[in-house]
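4.2 Preliminary Data

To establish feasibility before requesting continued support, the project team ran the inverse folding procedure on a target of 470 residues. The structure was first converted into the token representation described in Section 3, and no sequence information of any kind was made available to the design step. The complete token record follows.
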């Protein structure tokens, strides 16, 4: 079997080949607190100098405020707050780090966190305040005070369209220590949260929604002095299955505890976005938590098309060929997220090829004489929610002739051929690659093709610049 036949057979084989006793709570497996990485800074810190007369430190958006009463500080003190990403699974909005961390107030200062409406989309109204200590562990501040927005019921969540969120959570601070634990940051969290609270999905496609849950656990019996009001925040278990699911269009189903799948209708509905909800009934059936979200349905992309370029090298035990090629690939939508290569609309042309050796002979290659489509196949799989794709296939072969001179000076004419493959294993994908812009997919490719004894290898770089056509 020659090299081309070995490759073709190998490719064909590859191608086939915070809750009360009446509220639903997430499961927890121990009394250990959740531990996460610290948040990363969001924007610049806000700074204020506050002295004996008192004053306040407030972010421009009003989501954080520290009020220092008269007499709490003996001299002018520069205080600052840095907004951070919130790393607790059911965190609401941002978290905040106050500095300097050795500040002490003679009279209690009041810290107030007020998540805005966007922060509270998809969360329950069972929201509490937690601190993250220097080890990354989270603890609930049991003495924090929650102020609900007017009209909010304490057992039922209503989102932006219906009104009803918390207004703020406040806590009193003498310093940034609670017993032996240093308060590295503060943040609001909910006992249940739909993630993401808003999403978009193409008509006929599906997307995954999650439900995260965190709850205060019992305070350890031997809590050190100053930590009597610190309860570990547990997030180790997933919530139980929802008691009811609904979608105003399309369907919402339970995949596993804490995991839902929304499937969009085949046509864009009116109204759009679609409202989705997951309901958790209380233990005694008298109370419930409703998590509401919104999914926008957008047009499906019927095909992707774009240019592809190869800079490749084909190497076996007896042959080495380097080449460049370019062409146009068209992938037509087969089903949700899957696009199949259309051989009638796709073309790749060999631009240059230099045969370095053939069985020990040095060859100079003429221009290619033909392009042989060979076995044309391939797929493009788009995972929009996770911003990743798989991409691979065989477009075909190009062949030509070369004038070869042996070591003894004799000349001969030999045929050469080049396969156009893309992907990373036998011309087919082996896993996902991340992307930031779906119009550009690129990356290195190294192939080992054949029965294992010939060690045929193709190294190449591919670039696919695609534009979706609806």
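Position-by-position output of the design step:
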């Amino acid at each position: 079997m020659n090299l081309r036949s070995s490759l073709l057979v190998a490719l064909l084989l590859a191608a086939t080949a915070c809750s009360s006793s009446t509220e639903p709570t997430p499961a927890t497996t121990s009394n250990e607190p959740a531990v996460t990485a610290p948040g990363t800074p969001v924007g610049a810190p806000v700074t204020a100098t506050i002295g004996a007369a008192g004053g306040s430190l407030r972010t421009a958006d009003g989501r954080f405020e520290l009020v220092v009463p008269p007499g709490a500080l003996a001299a002018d003190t520069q205080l600052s707050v840095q907004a951070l990403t919130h790393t607790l699974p059911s965190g609401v909005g941002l978290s905040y780090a106050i500095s300097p961390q050795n500040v002490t107030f003679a009279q209690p200062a009041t810290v107030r966190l007020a998540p805005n409406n966007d922060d509270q989309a998809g969360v329950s109204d069972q929201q509490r305040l937690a601190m993250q200590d220097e080890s990354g562990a989270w603890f609930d501040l049991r003495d924090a005070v929650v102020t609900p927005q007017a009209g909010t019921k304490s057992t039922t969540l209503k989102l932006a369209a219906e009104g009803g969120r918390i207004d703020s959570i406040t806590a009193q601070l003498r310093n940034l220590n609670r017993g032996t634990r240093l308060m590295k940051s503060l943040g609001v969290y909910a006992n249940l949260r739909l993630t993401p609270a808003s999403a978009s999905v193409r008509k006929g496609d599906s997307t995954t929604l999650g439900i995260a849950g965190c709850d205060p656990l019992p305070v350890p019996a031997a809590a050190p002095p100053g930590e009597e009001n610190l309860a570990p925040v547990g997030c180790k278990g997933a919530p139980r299955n929802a008691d009811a699911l609904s979608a105003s269009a399309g369907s919402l189903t339970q995949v596993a505890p804490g995991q839902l799948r929304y499937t969009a209708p085949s046509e864009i509905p009116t109204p759009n976005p679609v409202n989705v909800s997951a309901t958790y009934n209380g233990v005694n059936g008298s109370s419930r938590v409703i998590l509401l979200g919104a999914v926008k349905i957008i047009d499906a992309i019927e095909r992707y098309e774009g240019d592809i370029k190869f800079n490749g090298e084909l190497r076996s035990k007896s042959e080495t060929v380097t080449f460049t090629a370019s062409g146009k690939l068209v992938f037509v939508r087969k089903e949700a997220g899957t696009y199949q290569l259309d051989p009638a609309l796709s073309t790749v042309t060999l631009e240059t090829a230099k045969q370095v050796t053939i069985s020990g002979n040095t060859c100079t290659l003429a221009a290619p004489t033909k392009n042989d489509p060979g076995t044309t196949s391939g797929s493009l799989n788009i995972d929009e929610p996770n911003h990743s794709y798989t991409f691979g296939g065989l477009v075909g072969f190009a062949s030509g002739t070369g004038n070869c001179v042996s070591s003894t000076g004799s000349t001969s004419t030999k045929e050469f051929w080049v396969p156009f493959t893309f992907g990373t294993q036998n011309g087919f994908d082996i896993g996902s690659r991340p992307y930031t812009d779906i119009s550009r997919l690129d990356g290195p490719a190294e192939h080992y093709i054949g029965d294992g004894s010939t060690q045929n290898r193709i190294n190449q770089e591919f670039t696919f610049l695609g534009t979706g056509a609806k």
